[in-house]
Structures are given as C-alpha cells and as structure tokens.
Design a protein that fits this description.
265 residues, mainly alpha, rod-shaped
Length: 265
Amino acid sequence: MKKFFMVLAAMSLMVLSANIASAQDDQAAAAAATEQVAAAASDSGDIDPFNVKSEEPLHQQLKTKFIEGGAGFMALIIICLIIGLALAIERILYLSFSKTNTKKLVEKVEAALADGGIEKAKEVCRNTRGPVASIFYQGLDRYDQGLDVVEKSIVSYGSVQMSNMEKGLSWISLFIAIAPSLGFLGTVIGMIQAFDAIQAAGDISPNVVAGGMKVALITTVGGLIVALILQVFYNYILAKIDSISIDMEDSSIALVDALVEYNKK
C-alpha cells in the first residue's frame, strides 16, 4: 500500500512539472494577448487600455500565482503537500482497515472458548483482521504458559501494534513544519529582491518593490495553506489512533477476564 502511494506521489510530481512549464507558457501568451488587446484598444480609441479585464479560470489564476511566487520555492512547497497527503491517505486507509467491532470479537472469542476451547478461539482471531484480533491471538497462543504470561504478551504486542499504527506520522509532522518554513524563506528572499531593486533603481517607489513583495507574500501564503491542510489530516489520524488504542485496551481486559473464567472451568 505504501509503495502505491509513493508511486502516486511521483506521478503527481511529474504532472506538477508539466503544469509548471505549461503555466509559464500560458502566462507569457496571456501577457502578449493583453498587450495586443491594449494596443488595439488604444489605436481605436473606443476602449480604455487601462481598464482591460482578462477573465481567467481559477486553475489558470492559481498557475499564474504559482509562477509569480517563484517556481523553485512553490514547487518545494507543493512537493511537501503531495508527499504529506500520500502518507496521510495511506495511514487513514490502514487505520480504517484496522478498525474492528471489538464487542462482537470478544463475544465470538467467548463463544469459541465455551464451544471449542483455545484452538477454536485462536481460529476466530486468525479469521479477523485488525490489531485487536492480532493481540488476542498472541495472548491465546501463550495461554498454556499461564495468565501472567498472557497479560505480558498482550501488553508487549499492544505496543508493537501502536508503533505500526503511528508509522509515518513523524514524516507528516516534518512536512507540516517544513512547508511554512519554506514559505518564510521565500518571504526573506523576496524582501532581499525588493531591497536589491530599490538599490539598483535608487528609488523606493511602489513599482520598484512590488515584484519582491509579491514573491514574499505568495510563498508565505502557500506554505501556510499546505501546513494547515496537513495539520487537519494529522489530527484526524491521531484521533483514529486514539480510538483504536482505547478499543485495544478495553478488549484486552475483556479477553483476560474471559480467560480467567475459562480457566476456572
């Protein structure tokens, strides 16, 4: 599953590269077309050349802003978004498949213990997906070594399952931190460009500093948006992990109680 999402992320990066090149061509073509319209309007004298409006679709406007923000920094920010989303979606699918109805599982295990003993209960766990069933199987597999060993096995294997569920979260949190940092770095570079333009022109007029300020603002906005998106997914994943871990603890206690009752018989 993780390999599939990594391939998907790589394909998205290739599509992104193609869109960057396309956006640059489209921006140049749009600028040329605007100049032609303005010139024609100025020659005819019917239309104010300073009031020419270009109605671009939303995706074209996003591409234009992407290029204006600096293709290098904006591409890095988008890469953080693509890889972060790929990891987040993989975790969400993994956790969704890991979710089981623990009450029904406990009931099935108790019924299997009553009907066929430990081996039948182990068979029920083998035929059930999810970390809870795996923990049950590890505990039942060590029943002959005593209930103390069963409890220790449940706790140890529960820690292993928790580690499996949290796998990849550190990378998502890394991209959450990197995306706004890249945006702020673009901001600093944009401000440097603005001051370089002021120094070269010997003037502090708005037209001189507008280009550098635009780069600064667009990269900052892009980095913050990516961080916000990934943060929502990150918190959702944490909530699902907490829910599954609570089910694991409750059901483990129920399994130990069931084994105590089985042991009395």
